[in-house]
Structures are given as structure tokens and as C-alpha cells.
């Protein structure tokens, strides 16, 4: 992949199409130099370790440590399971609500639609520094905002310092993340819904299909590609998640590692934290495993799901 | 409530009710932060839900923030990095998306897959090698380093989203342009780009957010005082003033403001594009 096949492809009965190369080249160069090559270097590092003070090729020894050593394996599986829960909560809470909000927003001639859209998208704009700190304050028993709000609906007895309890902490952090990112599925689905031509909707109405059944039978099939995109973005973003756990719970992903996900595990391993020294080789090994998990999920999407989706051209 | 044909007032009312309900959930934490940033310390703890009254109004938090850190300068750095990166991502991303969605050539699918890898793989996994490269080229502690990284980070998603949209641009239109003697470059810049403007605005918004809010690369590649971004600046500030709630709430409120302004600018373009129905 070091050269552009496009530029020296003699198309049948056509001159060399240089413009394809010109269109591709800037993106290709920046992307390859800053992203792909460093990633390859990281994957390579996972097969190396420091032996007698010098870097040496160790084959799969790092992987044997990661999966074989009881302490490493425990941390790794803990983080992976937490990551899957984190992902499941996003798919079950964030994306359906996002689609529902987009459907509501696309109601024809809805007043204040721009206002709602801006307001609901607001949390997505905020940095993890802001989101993490605001929610820590709100959920803090010291400040008492959350218990007070719950007392308004008579459920104050349900309140607990969730972020400090090892069971609910992961759910709480996931829901904070949902709160922050709901704007993304909403916007993508909203744009997809708006791009459905009026004629299609009018034809449906002529046939007496309106309201909810119109959404389920006409609009939903048309926006399936967009739903596919948000699912895969959620899947990938889930492995990129690090910042929120870091700002809410710290690099140790407390309490008792109950909110530890692969991102925080990688950070601690790669760069070290407190007494633990940074280990580049083990960090690269975890990064490689994450790479493979992500690759498997995305390949599944591209080959098994996206291929089967119908595309409509209006 | 306006009642047009086909929409009953009850239904419209329910739609508004649901949207208002979620809007409250979305806005409340931000609102809470902003109102409390204008109160004195006692009032923050005693009655967090109350808007600032003349008796509790205080700007002490803002005075601390503006006296301690060079926030104006941090904002400037963040603006430069974010805007230059977005422009680069949009231009290069749209060009590549056009090449991939418009032309059939050998290696097309492979190139598309190669570019898509970047959506899936967090660029952070390569941080050590990126840092080595930046050190070698003397770009550490420059805004250029951040711009390069963010451009590389944004391009894959831009290509992915934009090529989805470009496939929906009518072939007849492009072929009509070709018959009229337009070059491929003219077709791209004059016919296709204006049509996918709403998609460009979407990409701009999605590219902007992770760039503006990123903590990782400013910390590693450009932590110097001269190149600090506002996210890094406020993180360090909050770390130092963690018990001074006035200052923390004021810093949070200040950090929210500019991203909101940037968003309003882009959202207008987004909405204009969508309402013009350009995609159809």
C-alpha cells in the first residue's frame, strides 16, 4: 500500500486518470504518515521486549504474559467485560433514544426544532473535563443535588453514592457517557430523515400510512444505513473511551477497578501510574489485542451487514 | 401550538412535551454549573439550585480564574488548532471521498478499506511513535504538531461519511457537467461540493468536538505554556484548585462558552443546507 494503484491504471480506451491520484494523495499522505505508520510501529512493538537492557524480538511472549499470568489476565478480562457492558448500555439506551429524538424532531413544521436540536446536542460539545466534573458534583452526596432532585419525585430513598460503589459505578459512568453523546446518533438520524424526499412521504400518506406506522414501515428502512453507521461508531468509540473514566474515576478506574475499561488499562500499562512503571511492550500488546477486537467487529459490519443493506437513490 | 393539516394538536403537544423533557435533562447540568459560578461559596453549598440573588451574587471565581491563568491565550491556541484542522479534514477528506465514490479503478475497494481502518483504530494507540516522529522533525510544542495529528485523525471519518453522501448525488448531474466540458476538478468543486454542504457541516461538527476537547495530545505533544489549549489549561487549573469550587465552576463555565459559539456558527450552515433540501 505504498503506492497509488490509481495513478498508473491504464483504463480501457481512456488516458491515465491523474485526477484520481490528485484527489486521493493529500489525504493518503497525511493519514499514512501520522496515523498508519505509528500504528504499525506499535503493533511491531508488541513482539519486542527489553531483554538484558536491550530491545529484543520475543515472539509471542508478551501475549503469553497477558493471557497466562494470573494478574494480567484478571485485569484484562475485567476490562474487556466492563467494556462490553459499557457498549451494551450505549446500544440499548443512547442509540434508541437518539433515534426517537430525531424522529420527534423531524415532525413536519415543528416549532422550536432548532432550539431543541441545539439544546440536546449541547452536552456532546463539552469536554470530558467539564462533563466529568459536573457529574461528579451532581452525584456527590456532599452537594446533595441528585438526592434533592430525586426527592421531588419521591424516590430519595433510592439515592446512593453510585460512583463510589463498585456495582453501580460502571452503569453510572456509562449513563453519563450516554448523556454526553446522545447528540451524535440524533444528528445523524435527523439528517437521514430529512433527506427522505417529500414525494415518498406523500405517497405513503396517499396510501393512508401515517404517524408511527409511517415511521416503522417507510422511514426506518430508509434510514437503516445511518443506523448501521451509528452502531459501528458506537462500537469503535467504546474502545476509544478513556477520558470520561479518567476524569470521573481517575486512572485506577475505581472503586476497585470496577470501571476499568481497555482504554484505562492501556493507559496505566503504557504510561505507568503512581508506583506502576510504564511498560511500552505490554502496552503495545494490549493495544494490539484491542486492534484485533475492533478489526473483527468492523469487518463483521462491513462484510456481513453493510453489504446486505439496500441503498436507495432518489 | 400550530395545527396544520395532518397533525393533530394533541400529537404536536406530546411531541413538544417529550422534547422539552429531554431538553431539560440535557441542559440542566450545564445550567447548574453556570448559575453556581456566579454565587459566593456559602450559597453554592447551602442552596445549589437557586439562581444567584443580589445577596449571593459573586464574581470571585472568575476573578481567580482570570488572575491565575492565561485563558485568552489558551482560547486562541484552541481556535487556531481546531479551525485549521477542520478545514484540512474537510478539503482532503472530501477530495478522497469523491475519488473513492465516483471512479472505478483497480484498488478502489482496497483504498477505501485502508482509509476506513482509521475510523476504527484510535490514533492514540500510536502515540509513542507519533511523539518520536514529532521529536525527530522538531515539531514538539508547536501547534502544527497538533494540527497534523488531528487532520490525520479526522480524515477517515470524513471520507466515510462524505462518500455515503456523495453516492446519493445524482449521476445525471455529473454526466451533464462532463458533456458540457467541465473538468473532473470543476465537477468536484462546482457541482458536487455545494450539493453535499449539509454533510460537510455534519462532518465539521463531528470533527470539531474531539479536537477541541482533546486532552491527550496537547498534554503529550504541546504542553508548553505558549501552545497550551483551553482543555489542557482548564484541566490543570481544576487540578490545582480542586477545593476552590468558585474557581472550578467559573473555569468550567468559561470553557463551555467558546465551543458553544463555534457550534452556533456551524449549526447555521448545517441547518441552512438541510432546509435547502440540497441532498435531494
From TrEMBL, chain A:
Principal cellular location given in the protein's record: membrane
Membrane topology, from the record: Multi-pass membrane protein
Location(s) in or outside the cell: Cell membrane
Origin: domain of life: Bacteria
Entry protein name: Sugar ABC transporter permease
Family of the protein in this entry: Belongs to the binding-protein-dependent transport system permease family.
Transmembrane segments: 20-40, 84-107, 119-139, 159-179, 222-242, 282-304
Annotated source species: Rhizobium deserti
The keyword Transmembrane helix is assigned to this record: yes
Automatic annotation (TrEMBL), chain B:
TM ranges: 12-35, 79-100, 112-131, 143-166, 187-212, 247-266
Main localization, broad class: membrane
GO BP of this protein: transmembrane transport
Coiled-coil region list: none
Keyword Repeat annotated: no
Keyword Ion transport: no
Protein name: Carbohydrate ABC transporter permease
Record Pfam families: BPD_transp_1
Keywords: Cell membrane, Membrane, Transmembrane, Transmembrane helix, Transport
UniProt-annotated location(s): Cell membrane
CDD domains in the record: TM_PBP2 (cd06261)
Membrane topology, as annotated: Multi-pass membrane protein
GO cellular component terms given for this protein: plasma membrane
SUPFAM superfamilies assigned to the protein according to its UniProt record, in alphabetical order: MetI-like
InterPro entries: MetI-like, MetI-like_sf
Domain ABC transmembrane type-1 span(s) in chain numbering: 75-266
Family: Belongs to the binding-protein-dependent transport system permease family.
